[in-house]
Design a protein that fits this description.
The chain has 14 helices and four strands. The protein has 346 residues and is mainly alpha-helical. A two-stranded antiparallel ribbon has the order 1-4. Strands 2-3 form a two-stranded antiparallel sheet. Strand 2 and strand 3 form a beta hairpin. It is globular, with a radius of gyration of 24 Å. It starts with a helix and ends in a 10-residue tail after the last helix. About 1% of the residues have low confidence.
């Protein structure tokens, strides 16, 4: 009888362990984990707003909220373009080069203190077109020469930055066109026009991702290029168009930055690459591609912008702010990766 009781105890213990392992497996299974990861950024945003409001009630004052919205205009526009590239499973490092070219073109072709040009809003169209061409160049070089997007866009970044510095003569050129400056100075419903332009860019990105064949093809390529190609998707064409679209958004952001700053210079795009990538990843779009989207990126931009604003309100040192931002992007990447199915990390 004692042997039988010991046997029953050992069997029950084994069953308990198996049940616990089964529960943990179900809890961390693909669908459940994906569902938790999908809502995590939004939960972080809500908690962040609550904590900052408790620490400093000035955060929820209308004037500060308008300041947050204005600060998010350029990062949101940049991040819209970056989202499509990361959804492909690629990366675009040419953000600062493309943005610098757009800012340089709009300032030199509109009324300025360097030359006699005064083409008005044609300068804005030329700036966006120039940045779009830079994006298309990145896409063509990557697909035709079969160079990794990391190295291709790194080279294009320095090409664009060098061209911008050369054309500006290494100095700052002021933007004198009052209508273009109005993007930053004129308000509609208490918000600067730059915020409305950023929201228009966000709306356009939503339409492209969720309501066009191109948007579905981007997701398909990010999920598995071989399978997508067998389904009739042309990977080269989609990649070229995606980089061109990213260049378009970078160009709009460059125009907004020039309007806000009132000039163009060699450092106008400094730090914008980090902000764009951080916003996309923090929002929940996976670096491996095929998961996430522009709605996630909106949440990511708000998290990054509100965190920066909150740390300023709380009087936190700029050096500590950079540390927090670095920790945030590491944590976001760790949460966005499906490490259960990720066998090899390089």
């Amino acid at each position: 009888m004692s042997v039988n009781s010991e046997l029953v105890k050992s069997i029950s213990t084994t069953e308990q362990k198996n049940a616990m392992q089964s529960f943990l497996t179900r809890l961390t299974s693909g669908k459940r984990l994906r569902k938790w990861r999908a809502f995590a950024p939004l939960a972080v945003l809500v908690v962040l707003c609550i904590i900052i409001t408790i620490a400093n009630p000035n955060f929820i004052e209308p004037r500060n909220l308008i300041r947050v919205a204005n600060s998010a205009a350029v990062p949101l526009t940049l991040a819209m373009g970056m989202t499509f590239i990361i959804l492909l499973g690629s990366i675009d490092l040419s953000v600062e080069g493309a943005m610098s070219v757009a800012a340089m073109v709009v300032v030199l072709l509109a009324a300025n203190d360097s030359n006699a040009h005064n083409y008005g809003w044609l300068a804005v169209l030329a700036a966006i077109a120039a940045s779009t061409m830079i994006g298309l160049l990145s896409g063509v070089l990557q697909t035709v020469l079969r160079i990794p997007s990391f190295m291709t866009t790194l080279g294009v970044w320095f090409i664009g930055l060098g061209l911008s510095v050369y054309m500006l003569g290494g100095s700052a050129v002021r933007l004198m066109d009052e209508s273009i400056r109005g993007l930053a100075l004129t308000r509609f419903l208490s918000l600067p026009l730059a915020v409305w332009v950023a929201l228009a860019a966000f709306t356009l990105a939503i339409i492209i991702q969720y309501y066009t064949r191109f948007g579905r093809h981007v997701l398909a390529l990010g999920g598995g290029e071989d399978i997508a190609e067998f389904s009739g998707v042309n990977p080269r064409r989609v990649r070229i168009y995606a980089f061109g679209l990213a260049g378009f958004f970078f160009g709009v952001a460059g125009v907004l930055a020039a309007a806000q700053l009132g000039q163009s210079n060699a450092t106008i795009a400094d730090g914008r690459l980090f902000a764009a990538v951080t916003a996309v990843v923090v929002g929940g779009t996976a670096l491996t591609g095929g998961e996430g989207g522009v709605l996630n990126t909106l949440v990511g931009v708000l998290i990054v912008t509100i965190l920066a604003n909150g740390m300023i309100l709380l009087g936190i040192s700029p050096y500590i702010q950079q540390t927090v931002q670095g920790l945030m992007i590491i944590a976001a990447v760790a949460l966005s990766l499906d490490r259960l199915n990720l066998k090899i990390v390089k």
